[in-house]
Design brief:
Shape: globular
CATH class of the largest domain: Alpha Beta
CATH superfamily of the largest domain: Periplasmic binding protein-like II
Radius of gyration: 19 Å
Order of helices and strands: HEEHEHEHEEEEHHEHEHHEEEHHEH
Distance between the termini: 47 Å
Strand order of the largest sheet: 1-9-8-10-7-11
Number of strands: 14
Strand content: 15-25%
Length: 308
């Protein structure tokens, strides 16, 4: 706890001393770093390796994801190794090189991975009655900001360079105003995860942040004292939820078994117990076309950059 507070204080001092008109690329800033254990080499030769990065869930949810992968391993009848990763780019790289077999990824990285090497959908979680989520632009509770325009010249936190809700969506919103994060904000940082961005806003280390609605809502249930220090300034359009994916060359029999385990997990007492703790109702089928709106955002931003 002391080390986390120490890092937060250092970060606050860092942000307070930033030049008012800084336009450099966002920096990677560690906001209360949590446990990170990266396993780059396979353990048991017959193990299925699945990555769940710290970006996709708050640190409070790690144990449930580990337990859920243990449940998958028991149903699969072979070991499942939990692989930590520090960024979406690392997950995509490991999956492309087959250092891992599957992952739970953000929607944006799925679109990138599908285009680059055929990253394949297995299933998607259903939460709050649907398979969509939103980007929340949040500010400190006492912030006078009433809209995105009020954050002009302020400090802002993104979660990960490849995050859909934590980077792509706010960039798209700014591009629609003929702006970019480099021209609009005085300073931007990468927190490394959505829960760290929420913490940074709650502690007033930054003036605003873009975060995954699912993670904000999860923390709002288990740590309302934290989210209560923030306010949702803007809610984006809905986007297809972060999916469970595999490498396309994974053994078809293993692939189908994994899909079946996911789609029926809510029917098993242990699976339902873990899904409930993860605030997930069930896993359901999802098609690649569900992510077309994210592709359109990427294309729109690319066109805007070319025209400038």
């Amino acid at each position: 706890m002391f080390m986390q507070r120490f890092i937060l204080i250092l970060t606050a001092v860092f942000i307070m001393t930033l030049p008012a008109c800084s336009r450099e690329e966002p920096e990677k800033v560690d906001l209360s770093k949590t446990e990170t254990v990266i396993h780059n080499k396979r353990g048991q030769s017959n193990a299925v390796r699945i990555a769940v990065g710290g970006m996709i869930t708050p640190k409070e949810g790690f144990a449930y994801y580990r337990d859920f992968l243990d449940f998958i391993g028991a149903e699969l009848g072979r070991p499942v190794e939990y692989v930590d990763a520090t960024s979406y780019d690392e997950i995509n790289t490991m999956l492309e090189s087959r250092d891992i077999d599957g992952a739970i990824v953000c929607s944006g990285p799925y679109v990138d991975g599908h285009k680059k090497f055929g990253m394949e959908l297995l299933a998607a979680p259903q939460a709050y009655g649907g398979t969509v989520y939103y980007s929340y632009i949040i500010v400190p509770r006492e912030s006078p900001a009433k809209g995105l325009d009020d954050l002009r010249g302020k400090t802002f936190a993104f979660s990960d360079p490849l995050s859909n809700t934590g980077k792509l969506v706010p960039e798209y919103l700014l591009a629609r105003k003929n702006e970019s994060s480099r021209t609009f904000f005085s300073k931007t940082v990468f927190s490394g995860s959505h829960d760290k961005s929420i913490q940074a806003v709650a502690d007033r280390l930054v003036d605003g942040a873009a975060v995954d609605s699912l993670i904000w809502e999860y923390l709002n249930k288990i740590k309302p004292e934290l989210t209560g220090k923030t306010r949702i300034l803007l809610k984006s359009d809905p986007y297809a939820i972060p999916p469970f994916v595999v490498h396309p060359a994974l053994d078809p029999a293993v692939k189908e078994k994994l899909r079946t385990i996911l789609l029926t997990a809510h029917m098993k007492p242990k699976g339902k117990e873990l899904l409930d703790k993860m605030l997930t109702e069930r896993y359901v089928p999802i098609t690649d076309s569900a992510y077309d709106s994210i592709r359109e955002m990427k294309k729109w931003i690319a066109r805007q950059k070319q025209e400038k």
